[in-house]
């Protein structure tokens, strides 16, 4: 009985700690990019100086420029573009894909993602962590949604005949993005080519060559 009471108390404490980090403690904390305070996120602007523009951003209807080697473009609508998102735990992106365009494998270290197709046909997939490394993939059409769970590596590819576009929502105002290949080949300074080559079971000279081109 006593141990049950202790367990209930510990659970209650866990829930209150978890909730404390999610529920706002004021109406808003609009980001002040010039703020000097070193906080976990961005400091709040003086509420008296907040205007409707802090909660506004336009352009979700504008396709991004996909003329690049990936044939895709991610346009972000997060706390960097909309200061009023600060501390609220939500943000969005628009992703455009040229024919054969793809969004290379990446993770968002601070969010789950709800991906929604606006136009075209897009193959999506994510892979679970060790030990199973299960690959979940599906072909989506206009209006279809797919979830990329918190932190898992995922990708998208335009498999239709024309352009494709999607919007995605994140449960973080600053979800972050870690691109798998670029992390291996473009870090400054380089991750030692031997480590990259042996991790991917590639020839070390091949890796050195890719790294030198970045
Ligand atoms: C798209 O990007 C390419 C490559 O950077 C550039 O040459 C082109 O002018 C851009 N197109 C538009 C419409 O901005």
Mean pLDDT: 90
SSE sequence, one letter per element: HEEEEEEEEEEHHH
Question: Largest beta sheet, briefly?
Answer: 5 strands, antiparallel
Helix content: 10-25%
List low-confidence stretches.
Answer: 13-20
The CATH class assignment is: Mainly Beta
| Distance between the amino and carboxyl termini | 63 Å
Question: Structural class of the secondary structure composition?
Answer: alpha+beta
Give your account of this protein's structure:
By secondary structure, this protein is an alpha+beta fold. It has one domain (55-213): Jelly Rolls, CATH 2.60.120.10. The protein contains 4 helices and 10 strands, in the order αββββββββββααα. It has helices spanning 2-20, 180-185, 193-200, 204-213, and strands spanning 72-77, 91-97, 102-107, 113-119, 122-127, 135-140, 145-148, 153-158, 164-170, 178-179. β5 and β6 form a beta hairpin. α3 packs across α4 (204-213). The N and C termini lie far apart (63 Å). Bound molecules: 2-acetamido-2-deoxy-beta-D-glucopyranose. 2-acetamido-2-deoxy-beta-D-glucopyranose is lined by residues 65, 67.
